[in-house]
Every structure is written in structure tokens, then in C-alpha cells.
Amino acid sequence: MHARRIIQKLLEERCPGVHAKRAQSVAALVQAALQGGLSLMGLSRHLDSATPIRHRIKRCDRLLGN
Predict the structure, then answer these.
(1) Under 8 Å CB-to-CB from 26, ≥6 apart: which residues?
(2) What does the alpha-carbon distance between residue 7 and residue 39 come to, in Å, rounded to a whole number?
(3) CA 17 to chain centre
(4) Cys-Cys link to 37, which of 4, 7, 42, 61 (CB 3.0-4.6 A)?
(5) Under 8 Å between Cβ of 56 and 49
């Protein structure tokens, strides 16, 4: 969780025009990448969320698509 706060702070400072929800999603995916690798499934499995895996896959896919 500490890494996520650092990433969010960095995004706020360096990219002030980024929407808050998108910055949260980027921070969550960076944290998941540190834990689970860079594949879509690896990111989805390690995403810190209580939602089912299906919804985490969609969240990762949408962010990577943008």
C-alpha cells in the first residue's frame, strides 16, 4: 500500500492534468505489476480489489487500451 501512495503522489505532481480516477487505476496497476508481472492475467490477479477476477481483467484491459 505504501508504494501505491508514492505512485499516486508522483502522478499528481508530474501529471496534474490526469483525472483522479485514472491516476488511481495507474497506481493500482503499477503496484500489481510489481507483484505479478506484466501480463494481463498477472496484473489482474494481483490487483488489490475485492471484485471478481472478470471485473479486474476488464479494468486492466480498459486502462491498457487507453
Answers:
(1) 7, 11, 18, 63
(2) 20
(3) 18
(4) 42
(5) yes
CA neighbor of 27 nearest in space, from 39, 42, 43: 43
The pTM score is: 0.80
State how far Cα 8 lies from the chain centre: 10
Q: Extract the residue ranges of the chain whose pLDDT is less than 70.
A: 1
Per residue in 23-34, pLDDT (tens digit) is: 888 888 998 998
What's the CA gap between 62 and 66, in Å, rounded?
6
pLDDT confidence of residue 44: 93
Count the alpha carbons within 13 Å of 4 in the hemisphere toward its beta carbon.
14
CA-atom Rg of the chain in angstroms: 11
